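Narrative summary of target 7.
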Amino acid sequence: MSRARNLADLLDANGDVASGALDNVAGLPDAIDVNASAPADSLNINSSGQLMLGVTTPASTYGDAAFTIGTATGANTKYAVALNKAGGYGESFIGNYYTNVPDYGLAFTVGNSGNVMKFNYSGNLTVPGGIYLGGTGAANHLDDYEEGYWLPYISGSVSGSVTSFTERLGWYVKVGGVCHVSFYLANPGANGGTSGAWYISGLPFTSKSLTSQGYGTNYYSNGPITYNRGLSYSGSYLTLAVGNGWNYALISQHYNNGAETQNITNTSMASNLLMKGSVSYPVD
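Modeled conformation, tokenized:
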């Protein structure tokens, strides 16, 4: 049996591990190498005192990093650190991933859930399950954010729709269970009009169906028509209302003298009609 080497044999005059002292030590040929010349699956220390595990050179971006852990190559996630809670109460993993440039970076996961939180090269954080804000109840869980465009048009509750506007644009932001939309419509030109109440149709999401608490609550989201041209009506101002399970907003006219609210039911539509508005409504 080989005799263990004396500690004094491994140190230089300054008390540091001497260069080459651990090279090819019996029992450690693939484990530790002070000169960073051992195989890449070893623990290596270079002449600057930098520690490397699984690689023989420090990380290139920040070359003065004290500790570098290398993982296998490949276009998927490789975990370098495993955190195992004593008693078998769970494992967590930290590693890196690569999909393409610039979609690569740091990855975190717990157990074998498959839910991987990623922080990429561009500074973007991906959280697949959502986050809790201000508490841990269902009402505190934010799991969705989206923004984009939609194409609004005017339809009738009975029949007919007009989509021939030379200018039409809708924009939306969805944060959790609320969708905020705005729109602009102008110049439909010659058209066949509609029958019934007027709707702004084409909303990007169908509204959530909530339990009704009376007639008025059927229209639980309201917003203003901020500008219009070419629309004939007798009320004082116009609003939008979104009801249970709708993918459209009802246009209504209101009176400052307290008269009952009425829908816009014009059968003809002016060729130079222009309308702007916005509304926020709940969604699933």
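Residues 1-70 form one domain.
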